[in-house]
Amino acid sequence: MGSEPKVIIIMGSGSDLAHAEKIEAALTNLGLSSEKRVASAHKSARHLLDLLDQYEAQGGPRVYIAIAGRSNALAGLVDASVVAPVIACPPYSEAFGGADIFSSLRMPGGVGPTLVLEPANAALAAAKILGLGSQSIQDAVRDLQRHQEEKILEDDADIR
């Protein structure tokens, strides 16, 4: 049984790597470990389901972040297949003027991944979820919030 909190970042294709690396960097800043994997709900469903079975068998606190655009079946299939929380963080697409986001918004009944558009915010959401069972993760989130507040106060002082 794995007891170390982990975030599993699943990309629909290798073209999502830059987006995943932004999430990974934000997770690292919060002191969280992550793993990146590539599996498509459309093109390699068996591979995806096998990966999920392996992660679920490991146990321990975990959150999945699914990165897929266009027709985002990835977040839905991951969520329908695991008991851990799932965050959909699709990359922005110019091709459809951003309209492909709708595939991440409408999920079937009983399938409920959270949707977070900004990579750093997806990492923050994962940290807050995992922080429910970890004081050190809560402390990292508080430190981030404190730093953000200090920056606003500095900006306010600078313009006065």
- Output the radius of gyration: 17 Å
What can be said about the biggest beta sheet? 5 strands, parallel
Strand content: 5-15%
Oligomer: single chain
- H-E string: EHEHEHEHEHH
Fraction of residues in helices?
A: 40-55%
Outline type: globular
Description:
By secondary structure, the chain is α/β, with parallel strands linked by helices. Helices cover 49% and strands 14% of the residues. It contains six helices and five strands. The chain has helices at 17-29, 45-58, 73-81, 102-105, 119-131, 135-159; strands at 6-11, 33-38, 62-67, 86-88, 114-115. Strands 2-1-3-4-5 form a five-stranded parallel sheet, sandwiched between helices. α4 (102-105) links the parallel β4 and β5 (114-115). α5 crosses α6. The longest helix is centred in the C-terminal third of the chain and has 25 residues, at 135-159. It is globular and about 55 Å long.
Sequence-ordered SSE layout with sheet pairings:
Elements: E1 6-11, H1 17-29, E2 33-38, H2 45-58, E3 62-67, H3 73-81, E4 86-88, H4 102-105, E5 114-115, H5 119-131, H6 135-159
Parallel strand pairs: 1-2, 1-3, 3-4, 4-5
Describe this structure in a few short sentences.
The chain is an alpha/beta fold.
Keywords, separated by commas or semicolons:
globular; 160 residues; alpha/beta; single chain; 5 strands
